[in-house]
Amino acid sequence: MINPLITRHFFLVVLSVFLCTSTFAQDKVRLKANYVKIMNSEVYFDLQATAKVDGENVNVPKVELLIFNIVDDEQLELGKVTTNAGGKARFTLKDLSSIKPDSTNTYNVEVSFAGNDAFSDASKSISFKDAAIEAKLITIDSVNYVTATLTDKSTDSLIIGQSLKVQIQRLFKNLPIGEEFNETDEDGTILVSIPEGIPGVDGILAIEVILNESDEFGTVKTIVKAPFGKPVVDESTFDERTMWSPRNKTPLFLLIFPNLLTFAMWGIIIYLITNLFKITKS
Amino acid sequence: MKNYDKLLHDLAPQKFGKKGVIWTISLVVLIVLGIIAYIDQIIRGQMVTNMNDYALWGVYISNFVFFVATSFVGTVTVAILRLTKNTWRTPIVRIAEIISVAAIIMAGITITIDMGRPDRLLNLFIHGRMQSPITWDVIIIPTYIMISLLLLYFPLLPDFGLLNKHYKDQKPTLSKWYGKLSMNWTGSEAQKEIQLKSIKIIAILIIPAGFMLQTIDAWLFSTLFRVGWDSTNMGGYFISGAAVAGVGALVAVTYVLQKVYKLEDYITDLHFDKLGKFLVLVCLIYLYFNLNEYLIPQLTSKKEATTHINVLMEGQFAPLFWFVIIGGLIIPVIVLLFKQGRKPLPMFLIGLLVVTGSWWKRYLIVTPTLLHPFLPIQGVPEEWRHYFPSLHEWAITIATLAMALLIITILVRYVPIIPIQRTADEQKELELQLNKNTTK
Questions:
Q1: pLDDT higher for B383 or B2?
Q2: Among positive and negative, which fits the CA dihedral B298, B302, B306, B308?
Q3: Are the C-beta atoms of residues B279 and B350 closer than 8 Å to each other?
Q4: For A39, A248, B66, B98, which has the most beta carbons within 10 A of its beta carbon?
């Protein structure tokens, strides 16, 4: 005779083991968060969720991420976003004043994922200070330069020895200019010459000065419009009569000559057919 | 009148014998098989063909180009020989006109067969862009069909008049038909004047029309930036090639008709001799254009062009390429340079060789270029790099060739192969000249 209590305990143990293994079967999500500030424009966090599934790193799509502002052990919910097919999401702030820094003027943000059937919960915290880049255009001895000054807004001090990237916006990939590393001098400033002859719409070049993924300040970018480019001449033949345009924009010579030939030939053919009737009657 | 009686006896259309009936039935069977294959192609789509992303033009377009080329025979033999007053042309012009009509009608049908959605044919006229050579092709083919039909019909009027009288008692129904087709031809001076004037106009008109047709056909290829097609040589290359295909077909058909209808008194060795010399001339011109087409890219050594030519000369298409060049052009030139080679039987064999070479030449113009993609693409399925027509394509293509032969057969059955009236007039002129000479 089997004791019913033993049976019940045995059943509970089996159930517990099953539940535990079910939990262990979940894959662990890894979160990445980058803070990006564009001067006089938006502030956003680029987020990415990945997981290691069967030894392979895969993007985790369609998961909801919650974004919190941590201020002295207090969690203030800023909002939520859902990752796209590439496991990426962007959470945009109106401006940096939408979140509060702690007592050391450091902003603390936490991104968390609550977990689901396939993936376990995860969170990622980032901390950054507010920095600013002020860029100006100057011309020295007929040579055009972009100069940029990097400041720590939390202490209102210049940032010295920090490397900034300078590049011109292009259609496919931005064009770097200046040195590979343009370090700020004792005035927190860099000076980079702008090469001549770079094409731009109406001669305007959009020059970006970037502090890229700094541990302390995140990514800070400023864009300055420089009228130092070579104006792009619009060579579009849109709405013109060309060999490649639609039928209502056929070049005139192609409308005139083939139609003339066609009508002439068919005119003669009709004349020849009338000759047949003339033969019948004569 | 005795003269007319003999001519009518010899040259009036004759009923098919046993061989003729078997020949016609065989053609009908091939056509029916082709129609079945075509219906299946319409139902299942062009997946029944072996055309793919690379070889998007296959045997249908090769066949279309062949028909267009062959139709040029009307221009070269009829119009050019007429305008240059070569009197030896008389017994062969009608055959050339018949081949021309059959070939150009089949060219129109073949291009429709190549269309995935033939029900949208009208859209080519409604939405066609004048910038596209395809639109020019759509215009020139019906135009050339009309001109070819008129070129065949006008010289037939007196013959229809004669046949109307000839069959009045024996076959009244047939006579009635010939009467209607003769447009009440009485042979009056007024009728003759209008007829001769019209023939002269058509003979002039068909020359630019024929040149346009062949050139447009060439431009369908040369306006594309494809290796093997992107050439300024293409217009002349196609015109000379068309002359070869046309004269080759004319030689072969003329021989068959001479033997079947026992026309040795009318189509003599002299005609084959002249046609042989004419074929040598057009073959040499075509060889010259071939030399331009293949030698210049070799000398300039553009990578893609060299690869393309190597594929033709040494690669997978080499046997076909050398058959076309040697069999279809060089051997005919060598054989026809000898008087014995210009006798009817060798001429017939050479004609067949030339026509076969001409057909495969079009296949070589179309296919190898398509197998070299315009843009290099990675990971392309291996089967895309090769093309050989499917059973459906062969059945349909053979049916179109059979259809062309059936058109010729039907026309030959009801239309005098040799112009009766013109032959009579020429004989009369000859007799008058002989009488004059005797009196002197």
A1: B383
A2: negative
A3: yes
A4: B66
Determine whether the interchain pair B205/A265 forms a contact, defined as Cβ–Cβ distance below 8 Å.
Answer: yes
What's the CA gap between B161 and B185, in Å, rounded?
Answer: 5
How many whole angstroms from its chain centre is CA A126?
A: 20
Through-space distance between the first and last CA atoms of chain A, rounded to whole angstroms: 127
Q: What is the pLDDT of residue B220?
A: 94
* Domain covering A27-128, topology: Immunoglobulin-like (2.60.40)
Extents of the domains making up chain A = 27-128, 131-231
- Phi (first) and psi of residue B392, to 5 degrees: -60, -45
Whichever domain contains B11, its CATH number is: 1.20.1630.10
Domain range holding B283? 2-372+381-424
For residue range A235-263, list pLDDT tens digits in order: 888 899 999 999 999 999 999 999 999 99
Q: Which CATH number fits domain A131-231: 3.40.50.2300, 3.40.640.10, 2.60.40.10, 3.50.50.60?
A: 2.60.40.10
CB pair distance less than 8 Å for A272 and B150: yes
List all residues 6 or more positions away from B161 whose beta carbon is below 8 Å from its beta carbon. Answer: B178, B182, B185, B186, B187, B421
With contact defined as beta carbons under 8 Å apart, do A129 and A215 qualify?
no
CB B59 within 8 A of CB B391: no
Lowest-pLDDT range of A17-21, B237-241, B367-371: A17-21
Residue A269 to residue B197, Cβ atoms within 8 A: no
CA distance A23 to A3: 31
In a domain, B432, yes or no: no
Structure tokens at B105: 């009608």
| B63 assigned to some structural domain | yes
Q: What is the ipTM of this complex?
A: 0.92
Q: How many other C-beta atoms can be found within 10 angstroms of the C-beta atom of residue B26?
A: 13
B435 lies in some domain: no
Q: Which helix (H) or strand (E) holds B148?
A: helix B133-166
Alpha carbon B303 to its chain centroid, in Å, reads 36
Helix (H) / strand (E) element for A214: namely strand A205-214
CA distance B369 to B387: 11
* C-alpha span between B223 and A244 (Å, rounded): 12
Neighbours of B80 (CB within 10 A): 17
A247, A271, A279: residue with CB nearest B130: A247
Give the tens place of pLDDT for each residue, B26-75: 999 999 999 999 999 999 999 999 999 889 899 999 999 999 999 999 88
Contact at CB, B143 and A265, closer than 8 angstroms:
yes
Sign of CA dihedral A260, A261, A263, A264: positive
Q: Which residue of B has its CA nearest to A281?
A: B184
Minimal Cα distance from A242: which residue of B?
A: B131
